[in-house]
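Is zinc ion placement plausible here? Inputs below.
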Amino acid sequence: MNKLPSLLENNRNWAKQIKEERPDFFENLSQGQQPEYLWIGCSDSRVPATEIVDLAPGDLFVHRNIANQIVHSDLNSQSVIQYAVSVLKVKHIIICGHYGCGGVKASMQEERLGLIDNWLLHIKDTFRKYEEELSNYEFESEKVNRLCELNVKAQVENVCYNPFVQQAWNDGQSLTVHGWIYNLEDGLLNNLDICIGSLKEAKENL
Ligand SMILES: [Zn+2]
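Reply from A.M.:
I modeled the complex. Tokens:
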């Protein structure tokens, strides 16, 4: 049986280093969390949420799935949003896609992959909606990357029309929804200039 000794050793070294630098770090965190941000991103191993924005444990409430989808009937993501917005009262929700996303790419192909096809159907809807615009791109990689951006925009819409987000805005809670995309080639985040902070802005911009 392989008990993954290298990862467990990594963990011990990591905890030791933090304790040396900030002796009360874990004790403070164990009292509770008050993150300001909810991060919704892709499961892709190359897009680790906390690391790419250089934050620490406790700073980011995170939900990740294949191709950063927010589906209204998905109890998992809906529960995350409710808890983050209604209980933790995060101030920002960041939907972060990434260029070259395998899930987005797969949604553009006819090949059947199994269960994941059902999950990707939602991106196929976005693909069909913007098929004309996407046909203007000469290279497949450009088309994929544009659909990655459009997918972020579609998920921002889904978050903004989530009932808990709408309720928060109705109650005057400070909450802004952002659309970002990550570039695997240089490690940089691209702000898609989607920034919605009220019911009015959602109606005007989405
Ligand atoms: Zn991805």
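Short version: The mean pLDDT is 96.
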